[in-house]
Amino acid sequence: MITTTATEKDHQGESSKSIDDGYTAAKQQECEELLKQFQSTGIKMSREDFEKIYLSQRPPQRDSPTQDLSALYDYRKRLGTPTPLSLMGFLICLSPLSCDLMGWRGAGGNGAAGMGSYFFFGGLLMILGGLLEFIMGKTFSFVVFCSFGGFWLTTASTLQPFYNVGAAYAINPNNTSLEQGFATVGFTASSGFFYVFMAVLCSIYFICSLRTNICNVFIFLSLTIAFCLLAAVNWTYAEVFAGDQSRIPLIHKLQVSAGAFLFITCLMGWYSFFAIMLISIDFPYQFPIGELSGLVRSRTQRMREMASAA
Question: Where, subcellularly, is it found (predicted)?
Answer without folding.
Answer: Membrane
